[in-house]
Amino acid sequence: MEDYQEQMHQESIHQDTRQQGAMYHNIMYQDSLQIEAEHMQNIFGGNDAYIKQIEKDLQVAITDRNGEVHISGSQEAVNRARKLIDELVELSKRGNTIQEQNVAYGLEMSKVNNNNALLEIDADCICHTVAGKPIKPKTLGQKTYVDAMRKNMIVFGLGPAGTGKTYLAMALAITAFKNHEVERIILTRPAIEAGEKLGFLPGDLQSKVDPYLRPLYDALYQIMGVESFQKNMEKGLIEVAPLAYMRGRTLDNAYIILDEAQNTTPAQMKMFLTRIGFGSKVVVTGDSSQKDLAAGVQSGLDVAQKVLSKISDIAFIQLTSSDVVRHPLVQKIVKAYEDYEKKINDAHLKAAQKTAERAGKTTGRQLFRQGTKKGANPYR
C-alpha cells in the first residue's frame, strides 16, 4: 500500500513538472540584441532606471551580459520591448540624450502598436536654443500641432498645462523671424490673476504688467538669448504686451501669439482676431479647464471654437494628458483631474436627464448646459 502511494506521489510530481514546463514554453520567450558600449548608459539610464521602467510596464526581464541585452517574457511583451529598445538605440545614435519622457512615451505608443513614433517625432527639429539644445516635438500630438502651425494662418492650440503649447509656438515664431518670413514677433496674454488678488503693483505701466508676461519672457530668453531679445525688443521687432494693448491696431507681417486665451472674453477674442493683417500668422493657446474669469463670464476661447471651427485656414489642435512633457508625475496629475472632472460632469448630466424625464419639457443636455452656464469648472 505504501509503495502504491509513493508511486502515485512520484507520478503527481512528474505531471506537475511537465505542466510547469509546458507553461514555461508557452509563456516564456527570449530575444537578444547587441548595444554598443557608448550607448549603453544612455539607454539604461542612471541606476538602470529606464530599463527598470520598461521591465515594470511590459512585464519582461532584461539583463545585460557584456553588451548583449537579453529580454525574456511573453512573446508579445518581448517584441514590444525589443522594438522600443531599438528605437532608443537609434535615438542615441542620432546624438539625443535619452530622457524619462522618451521612455514613458515610447511605452505608451508600444501599447497601441505605434512603434516608430519616437523616430518619426525626432526627425522634426524646429530650431536650437541659445545653448545649442534642439527643440523638437516630443509626442505625436505635438507633431500634429507643429505641422498645423506651419500650414495654417491661424491655429488654436488647446490642452492641459505642460503640453508645450506656448513653447513650441514661440520656437516657430523665432524661427520665422530669423528666416525673415515675418518682420516682428508679438506676444500677448490677458492680464488676469490666477485665482488670487495681487493688489497694487509698484512701478510704471510696463512694470505692472510684466509679472503676467513673465512666462513668455522666460521662453524667449531660453530660445533666443537675453542679449538678442533685448536688442530686438529695443528696435520694436519683438513686443511683449498685455492683450488690452492690441485694440485699434493692424498687425501686418507679424507672428502673433495669444497665450492663456481661456481668460479672454468673447469681445476680447473677437478684437484680437480682427487685428490680423497681411503676411501674419497667429497662434492662440489655452486650457479651458483653467479659467480665471469671474463667475458667469463666458470664455472667448470656448466661443471661438464654436464660431470658427468650420473656417478654412483656421485649425484647432487638441492636446491631451498624453502630450504632457513635464515630469511624468505632472502627466498623472493632469490625467487624474481629467478623470475627476469627467466624473463630475457625467453626474451633472445624469441628474439633468432624470429631471428632464420628470419634467418632460426639455432634454437632459439642455438642462446640463443651463446648469453649467456660470462656468464649467467643477471646483467653483
Description:
Residues 11-26 and 193-199 have low confidence and may be disordered. This protein has helices spanning 2-27, 37-44, 49-58, 75-93, 100-110, 117-122, 140-151, 165-178, 205-224, 226-234, 266-273, 300-308, 328-359, 364-371; strands at 29-34, 61-65, 68-73, 127-128, 134-135, 154-158, 184-189, 238-242, 254-258, 281-286, 314-318. The longest helix has 32 residues, at 328-359. The protein has three domains: 21-122, 2-Layer Sandwich (Ribosomal Protein S8, Chain: A, domain 1), CATH 3.30.1370.10; 130-326, Rossmann fold; 329-371. The strands form three sheets. A six-stranded parallel beta sheet has the order 8-7-9-10-6-11, sandwiched between helices. The protein has a three-stranded antiparallel beta sheet with strand order 1-3-2. It has a two-stranded antiparallel sheet with strand order 4-5. Helix content is 51%, strand content 14%. It has 14 helices and eleven strands. By secondary structure, the chain is α/β, with parallel strands linked by helices. α4 packs antiparallel against α5 (100-110) and α11 crosses α12.
